[in-house]
Specification:
The protein has about 210 residues and is α+β, with helices and mostly antiparallel strands. The chain contains seven helices and eight strands. The chain has an eight-stranded mixed sheet, with helices on both faces. β1 and β2 form a beta hairpin. The longest helix is centred in the first third of the chain and has 16 residues. The relative contact order is 0.16.
Length: about 210
């Protein structure tokens, strides 16, 4: 039996309005593959460098392999990987990965969203839900989001949700064929006493997410 202390807060499903987050599902392989292939131009600049082409990386078989790895890491308490759906349609993922417990209790936040769902508040709502879950049931204290300086939309997203810029990480990650600088953003559990979702709701009351 796995010690539940190793993975508090998992598995979990989160929802607000038409947006639902849940663990990656085995039968989502074909839908995930179609979505990733259709979004190549939109997502490639922010993706890790790989030795195989985009199609091979995003075939249904690649999803199944990725899901097995993420499911194992989630059971071990090292990751919180969520699929994002709007009215039942898969539109992206939000993951808190590289979770460290002990005195640090921190994780790295990452996300991607279908281009057709961008600009409607879906990504920021999904991130807000995951942040509150990470700080609540999952028991984390710090979330870090590392974003390329060129990715202005992601910078705006995390800044609106209360993340603070802490510095520049020089040539930090091998992304899209080269070592890229990243801006380090972080949010602490005590930064928003009312929660991240509450801040999201206050940014634009009645904001549509569908």
């Amino acid at each position: 039996m796995i010690d539940p202390v190793l993975h508090p807060g998992w598995p979990a499903s989160l929802a607000w309005g038409p947006v639902e987050l849940h663990p990656l599902r085995r039968d989502d392989a074909a839908e995930w593959s179609r979505l990733r292939l259709a979004n190549e131009d939109w997502l490639r600049p922010w993706e890790p460098t790989a030795t195989v082409g985009w199609q091979a990386r995003h075939a249904p078989a690649a999803y199944r392999a990725m899901r097995r790895v993420m499911a194992r890491r989630a059971r071990q308490g090292a990751s919180l990987p969520f699929a994002v759906r709007v009215e039942g349609r898969l539109v992206g993922q939000v993951t808190v990965d590289n979770i460290v417990r002990g005195a640090l209790r921190a994780g790295s936040l990452g996300y991607w969203i279908d281009r057709s769902a961008a600009g409607r508040g879906v990504a920021s709502l999904a991130v807000a839900l995951v942040c509150d879950h990470a700080f609540g049931p999952a028991g984390l204290h710090r979330l870090q989001a590392d974003i390329r300086p060129e990715n202005l939309s992601s910078q705006r997203l995390v800044e609106r949700l209360g993340f603070q810029r802490e510095g520049l990480l020089r040539r930090y990650l091998d992304i899209d064929g080269g070592w890229r600088d990243h801006l380090a953003y972080a949010l602490l559990a005590e930064d928003l006493p009312g929660g991240v979702l509450d801040r999201w709701r206050g940014m634009a009351p009645g904001r549509p997410v569908d």
